[in-house]
Specification:
mainly alpha; two-stranded antiparallel ribbon; 2 strands; elongated; 6 helices
């Protein structure tokens, strides 16, 4: 069992929790304030997407955020279970888990960067009049989803680099918080 006072291990767990929070902010801000409803009594009660009216952009941000949230929950549970609860009995599972974690982290880093670029492109395509007519909550929610999707990209790179260290650099399959 790794020592509980080991800062490097808790840094990795805290980074996983931050990634989880970033996913919540992205899909939560799009779900809550990502649509502009000008007249609630109209037939289109869902409103239009605040990202230049492109509904595909809102759906992309929502679906990636929800999927990333679910994946982060699973990876967090596996990390805590494999590396704290059953530390001695999971010697065979450490390296494969680290490899899968590394690959998924880099894949989701690319996906988050794509989402960030698409959200920012949709936001920048709006003219100043359309941006000015949005409520403050809609503007803040749209900008928060862009910023936190970029933070998710950075955290995916971080988790991928930790995975590279765990799989390829640490001797004998030792983990980053074991070796350092």
């Amino acid at each position: 069992m790794p020592p509980k006072e080991n800062l490097k291990y808790w840094l990795v767990v805290a980074a996983r929790l931050f990634t989880l929070i970033c996913a919540i902010v992205v899909f939560g801000s799009i779900a809550n304030t990502g649509r502009k409803v000008s007249h609630p009594d109209l037939l289109n009660a869902n409103g239009t997407c605040v990202y230049n009216g492109d509904d595909a952009t809102c759906r992309l941000g929502l679906s990636v955020g929800v999927f990333a949230f679910s994946l982060d929950i699973v990876l967090l549970i596996l990390e805590v279970t494999l590396f704290i609860v059953a530390w001695e009995s999971t010697e065979k599972l450490k390296k494969p888990f680290s490899l899968v974690d590394m690959l998924l982290s880099f894949i989701f880093a690319i996906v988050w960067l794509t989402v960030c670029i698409i959200l920012a492109k949709g936001w920048s395509a709006m003219d100043s009049y359309t941006t000015a007519e949005l409520r403050t909550a809609e503007r803040d929610g749209a900008l928060a989803s862009i910023v936190f999707s970029f933070f998710s990209f950075l955290m995916g790179i971080f988790h991928g680099c930790v995975g590279i260290y765990r799989v390829f650099i640490a001797e004998g399959g030792e983990l980053v918080y074991e070796k350092l």
